[in-house]
Automatic annotation (TrEMBL), chain A:
Protein name according to UniProt: 60S ribosomal subunit assembly/export protein
Alphabetized UniProt keyword annotations: Coiled coil, mRNA transport, Nucleus, Ribosome biogenesis, Transport
Source species of the chain: Lachnellula hyalina
Organism classification: Eukaryota, Fungi, Dikarya, Ascomycota, Pezizomycotina
Compartments it resides in: Nucleus, Nucleolus
A Gene Ontology molecular function term of the record: mRNA binding
Chain's role: Required for efficient assembly and nuclear export of the 60S ribosomal subunit.
Gene Ontology BP annotations: intracellular mRNA localization; mRNA transport; ribosomal large subunit biogenesis
Automatic annotation (TrEMBL), chain B:
One Pfam family matching this protein: pre-PUA_NIP7
CDD domains the record matches: Nip7_N_euk, PUA_Nip7-like
SMART domains in UniProt: PUA
Keyword Nucleus part of the UniProt annotation: yes
Gene Ontology molecular function, alphabetical: RNA binding
Protein name (database record): 60S ribosome subunit biogenesis protein NIP7
Lyase is among the record's keywords: no
PUA domain location: 100-175
GO biological process per UniProt: assembly of large subunit precursor of preribosome
InterPro entries (UniProt xref): NIP7_N, Nip7_N_euk, PUA, PUA-like_sf, PUA_sf, Ribosomal_synth_fac_NIP7, UPF0113_PUA
Species annotation: Lachnellula hyalina
Subunit structure: Interacts with pre-ribosome complex.
Stored Gene3D superfamilies: 3.10.450.220, PUA domain
Length: 192, 188
């Protein structure tokens, strides 16, 4: 009942303060509503009290708390760690018997075996790749070396040929020169 | 003091299995064939994990927690993030079941015991077919365990390494008994 009362008080104030005072409609409303509304309120109050009294007379209804109702809570974020399962024992679960320890050990061992095996496989593959790359590099070096040798040989042959040809020409020249002009010795520098 | 939980047991075994082979299961095997035979168990006390005989662990229950300093063999400690760190005190157990081994020459013993990594020039022998980043136990040439570490290169790669190249990263060595004397057994 209390909130309705406060609301009426508020509305009274609002009615007094708000609106245009001199307007006809407000004055009319005031004059008409005030005498009618008061008895109405009283009636309502009395009815409410009666109802309450009747309720007391009846059997008291059981009031359920929120926890008892077990209603899923809406719009709430419950982290995984915070939510505790119902009807479960608190605390840690220890592993102290041999069988469970053995099973854990077997699992861990198998896992490690696999890891080591995969590591070895990987290492072997890498080794193979490295070997292949090394062989290829060696091959390339050899090819380059043989090419170099070939060119060297070619150059050597060329030089030999050219030296032979030069000698013939010179003799011809010298002969020709001897025939026409007195030979002038040319100055030359030779490297060993 | 309490037994380990399942995830703790798993992390511990995973760490031990880095260094040991399949013979690790002998670690928790009963000592004899009797129905109530004594066996070794793992116990956690102030974040340290101990490998201890069950009968001894049961006796140790009568000592109050704050007064109990140590029992059995300390294997290492659990970090706050749940990982496990092996201590040098676990060396006898690792050495017994070691899978991959590295033997260090006499001239390499001291550098290793002073906390240095194992360089190739100091290696006398090594286990064949050892992959990279694999836990190994370091021995002296007369088979005395000196410590343990992790391989830096696989055996095949290490062959090509120059003499000053690191072959094995040190993780723990016997020199820690002196160097870390204050913190190795202190519980606070």
């Amino acid at each position: 009942m209390a909130p309705s009362r406060t609301s009426t008080v508020k509305s009274k104030h609002a009615a007094n303060k708000s609106g245009i005072r001199n307007s006809k409609t407000t004055s009319k409303a005031k004059s008409s509503s005030d005498p009618v509304s008061k008895p109405k309120k009283k009636e309502q109050q009395s009815k409410g009290v009666q109802k309450l009294k009747k309720g007391e007379g009846r059997k008291k209804r059981r009031v359920y708390t929120e926890k008892e109702l077990d209603i899923p809570q809406l719009n709430m974020i419950t982290p995984v760690g915070v939510e505790k399962p119902k009807g479960k024992k608190k605390g840690k679960v220890f592993v102290d018997d041999r069988e469970s320890m053995m099973t854990i050990l077997a699992m861990v061992n198998a896992d490690k075996e696999g890891q080591i095996e995969s590591k070895m496989m990987k290492a072997r593959q890498m080794e193979e790749i490295r070997e292949a790359r090394k062989a290829e590099a060696e091959k390339r070096v050899e090819i380059r070396k043989s090419k170099l040798d070939e060119t060297k040989e070619g150059l050597r042959k060329k030089r030999k040929r050219s030296t032979g040809a030069d000698g013939g020409e010179e003799s011809i020249k010298s002969e020709a020169a001897a025939g026409t002009k007195p030979l002038k010795k040319r100055k030359s520098v030779s490297f060993a | 003091m309490r037994p380990l939980t399942e995830p703790e047991t798993q992390t511990l075994f995973a760490k031990l299995a880095n260094y040991t082979g399949t013979s690790l299961k002998n670690l928790i095997a009963p000592l004899d064939n009797g129905p109530n035979a004594d066996r070794f168990v793992f116990r956690l006390h102030q974040s340290r994990c101990y490998y201890v005989r069950l009968s001894l662990a049961n006796l140790a229950v009568s000592v109050s927690r704050d007064k109990l300093l140590s029992l059995g063999t300390c294997l290492g400690k659990f970090t706050k993030s749940g990982k496990f760190r092996l201590h040098i005190t676990a060396l006898p157990i690792l050495a017994e079941h070691a899978r991959y081994k590295v033997w260090v020459k006499a001239n390499g013993e001291m550098p290793f015991l002073y906390g240095g990594h194992v360089v190739k020039a100091h290696i006398g022998r090594w286990s064949e077919d050892c992959p990279e980043h694999q836990g190994v136990v370091v021995y002296s040439m007369n088979d005395t365990p000196l410590g343990f570490g992790v391989t830096a290169r696989s055996t095949q790669e290490a062959r090509r390494l120059d003499p000053t190249g690191i072959t094995c990263f040190r993780q723990a060595d016997c020199g820690e008994y002196l160097r870390d004397e204050d913190t190795l057994f202190a519980t606070s």
